[in-house]
Design brief:
The chain is of the alpha+beta class. The protein contains four helices and 13 strands.
Length: 221
């Protein structure tokens, strides 16, 4: 029998499969990180992530936290499309794990500081604007490199309507189904990270992203 995730009810199992399905719909090679401890499962996926040192794509993660069997302890990543239902409240795991580069960057568990709020309407509006901008800027029959370049430019741009966060956080929130109805999303920061918390999940972005040159500083006596 393949290894399985055992949930307390069918709704939690369905939530896990929905999260994995949305991730796979964005990228057929997408991975999902599974971290379980003390009856809590944190599922994380990279909605946007760079490939190589010269890739300008920002790192934007989506996270959903679900109840799971209290005896389960795990910390691994699997291909999102490989997660399948295995009974009413169980999800079967593939036989092999994967190790995408983004799993090596772990957001802190604590020391988050409040940094304001965003409305679900703001997130939805900027995501829709960005999707239209990507579609407009892509030529007919573009190659993968051109697609990534255009997406990195649109989604990696700092957006004043999002409080100075990269526009990719809005894309992640909408594409993963976290934006639903009217809601105030809490924004918190920790060294190197920003987290946007909605009722349906969290968006984490590695940064902050800085653009332009830094100020000139005097040195010496």
């Amino acid at each position: 029998m393949p290894p399985r995730l055992v949930f307390p009810d069918a709704d939690a199992a369905a939530d896990a499969l929905t999260f994995a399905g949305r991730s796979a719909a964005l990228d057929s090679d997408a991975a999902v990180s599974l971290q379980a401890h003390a009856g809590v499962l944190a599922m994380t996926t990279a909605v946007l992530a760079p490939r190589g040192l010269l890739d300008a794509m920002p790192t934007v993660l989506a996270m959903r936290v679900l109840p799971v069997d209290p005896e389960l302890q795990c910390d691994l990543a699997v291909t999102a499309s490989a997660l399948v239902a295995a009974g009413t409240a169980e999800v079967a795991l593939p036989e092999t794990a994967v190790r995408p580069a983004w799993t090596g960057m772990s957001p802190p568990r604590g020391s988050w500081t409040a940094a304001g709020a965003l409305t679900s309407a703001q997130l939805a509006a900027r995501a829709q604007w960005g999707m239209a901008a990507v579609a407009h800027d892509l030529p007919q029959d573009p190659g993968e490199d051109i697609v990534r370049s255009v997406r990195a430019r649109i989604w990696g741009q700092v957006d004043d309507d999002l409080g100075g966060l990269v526009r990719g956080v809005a894309f992640a929130a909408v594409s993963m189904g976290f934006v639903h109805g009217e809601e105030q999303a809490r924004v918190v920061t920790a060294p190197g990270w920003t987290r946007i918390t909605l009722r349906r999940g969290h968006i984490l972005v590695r940064g902050p992203v800085r653009s332009g040159l830094t100020a000139v500083r005097e040195t010496g006596a």
